[in-house]
Amino acid sequence: SYFVGSEETEPGYGWPYNTFFTRFAANTAATPADVSIYLTEEYLKAYNGGIYGKQDVTFSAYDMSKFQAVMSSTKALSATLASLAPADISKAKTAANSTQSYAYDDYKDFHDFLDRAAVSSVALDAVVVETVKDSIRNLVISGGGTGSYKASHGISIWLPTQASDLSRYQA
I need a surface site. Which of 47, 83, 115, 144 has the fewest CB within 10 A? Predict the structure, then answer.
């Protein structure tokens, strides 16, 4: 029902099991959502001056019962993007290129892309965009990033900006 993980590749130290289990042991009546949130919070603290020092990381917890809404709203967004005029496609690519990315540059923070597309005045349907953002906020029950990943909102998508990247994966 819940999932935890990172938008970015996780560093070698991994998860802060000691601090997480100490917190969990102090509240054995925690719900699965609580446990997911504890792990996310302890992970981010561990790399933000905590037991693993300072390192740029991301980590999130999802309520998987909300995932279908993300899928549905993303399909509507995809249709809106596919219908853009060439000038707006260019603006969307520019927004995508400036979106928070990770070790693989064609993976971008989904919410950050939508924010940057709005700033770039991409002619997207505002209701569709807000529906996607709401679905992301409902899915991601805890998370974010430290350091250079502050623009991370908890969920990334594959968002290639080069035709060669896209064509390499087309069936």
Answer: 83
Residue 168: the pLDDT is: 58
Q: Which two tokens stand for residue 120?
A: 């770039």
Q: How confident is the model at residue 162 (pLDDT cuts 50, 70, 90)?
A: confident
Q: What string of DSSP letters covers 73-121?
A: HHHHHHHHHHT--HHHHHHHHHHHHTS-B-SSTTEEEHHHHHHHHHHTT
* C-alpha to C-alpha distance for 114 and 25, rounded to whole angstroms: 39
Let me know: does 81 contact 124? Beta carbons within 8 Å. Answer: yes
Phi and psi at 138, nearest 5°, equal -75, -35
| Interior angle at CA 21, CA 30 and CA 147, nearest 5 | 100
Answer for the pair 16, 43: CB distance below 8 angstroms, yes or no: yes
Q: What integer pLDDT is reported at residue 167 of this predicted model?
A: 56
pLDDT value of residue 68: 98
Tokens 């719900």 identify what position? 31
On the question of pLDDT at 171 being above 60, the answer is: no
